[in-house]
Amino acid sequence: TPVLGETVNTVNATSIAKERGIAVVESKFAEIEDFANLISVVVKTDKSQHEICGTLFLKRDSRIVKIDNYYVEVIPSGYMLFITNKDVPGIVGYVGTVLGKNNINIAGMTFGREKQGGNAVTVLNVDAHVPLNVLEELKKSKDIQDAKLVKL
Asked: 144-151 and 79-86: which strand pairing?
């Protein structure tokens, strides 16, 4: 609703998505794997494909629980910084230093990794917009592949 400027609800969401060229597929499984209730969104472009999964804890606290192959626990709110990186020592310190010197406060931080020392994702809830020059500075680290800001 905030992005589209119109009311989106369970009745009209499918038709609004179709109008915008978004394919919607609903699947239900009787067998529970990781979560009793899980919603999954797959975004495909000509360059890449990404999956984000979310759930509700205690029927009211929403969480992003999986990004591609990485299990995380992210509060989907406000400004969120998504970083893909190597799972090596120093990432937390580097990210904190870069954000701190640019006066950007970290409200929450979570990590997900494939395996120890492998590829990883770092997700931060931050209190303010992260300017492009700060994202570029984060990407200067040899251990950070990408950094993107999302605002909900």
From this structure: antiparallel
pLDDT digits (tens, 9 = 90+) for 47-77: 999 999 999 887 778 999 999 999 999 999 9
Whole-Å CA distances, 151 to 37, 82, 94, 115: 24, 11, 22, 29
Structure-token pair, residue 97: 């230093």
Scan for tokens 């701190």, then name that residue: 100
How many whole angstroms separate alpha carbon 34 and alpha carbon 40? 13
Would you give the DSSP letter of residue 74? E
Is the pTM of the predicted complex or chain greater than 0.85? no
Task: Give every strand in the sheet of 49-57, ordered side by side.
Answer: 39-44, 49-57, 61-67, 70-74
